[in-house]
Amino acid sequence: EEVYSQHLEAMGQLWRSGIEIEGNLDLARHVNSSWWNLLLSYRWGQNMSSSPGGLANNCYKGHSFWDIEQFMWPNLLMFQPQLAAASLQYRFDRRGPAQANAAKWKKAGLKFPWESAVTGEEVCPWPGGKKEIHINGDISLAFWQYWQATADGAWLRSIAWPVLRGIAEFWASWRSEEHTSELQ
């Protein structure tokens, strides 16, 4: 009974407010359903990311994708900042595979995979996905947005800076003449 009571209290906190769209109940249901699927992918105290749309719909086989930082993550920042921080911690914790990925390209710094999972290694089944490099920009934007929202200097120094520096090193080592030959 105690666990059930704690569960009810936690669910009440999680759903203390839904997203209301005045005059469009159908759209509000869709938005809240999407939000629910996204929240199902996160747990307090776990530094994980989500697949686009959450794990509940098996979108992209549950892999973390660039879509997270670009499209879903800003919602976490707004409504669940602790989960947003955990999602960024996921990237921080997987700097090793991102560094190895950059080294495969003969580049410095960090090249995060287009599609990753628990290990942080590239798991995209489509060969062209390995050539997608825009995710570094998406990740750095999310780190910047978190800093802008929280002004947490300790987090900026210890978590964000190593990731942002690694991404910057990757871009600095990228040369346009090499870029063309590598993508062919």
Keywords:
mainly alpha; 184 residues; 59% helix; 2% strand
Shape: elongated
| Sheet with the most strands: spatial strand order | 1-2
Mean pLDDT, nearest integer?
82
- Give unreliable regions as ranges: none
Instruction: Please summarize the sheet with the most strands.
Output: 2 strands, antiparallel
Radius of gyration: 18 Å
Helix content: 55-70%
Oligomer: single chain
Task: Please state roughly what percent of the residues sit in beta strands, choosing from under 5%, 5-15%, 15-25%, 25-35%, 35-45% or over 45%.
Answer: under 5%
Secondary-structure element pattern, one letter each:
HHEHHHEHHH
Structural class: mainly alpha
Strand tally is 2
- For the terminal residues, how far apart are their CA atoms? 61 Å
Tally the helices: what do you get? 8
Describe the model.
By secondary structure, the protein is mostly helical. The protein is 59% helix and 2% strand. The protein contains 8 helices and 2 strands. It has a two-stranded antiparallel ribbon. The mean pLDDT is 82.
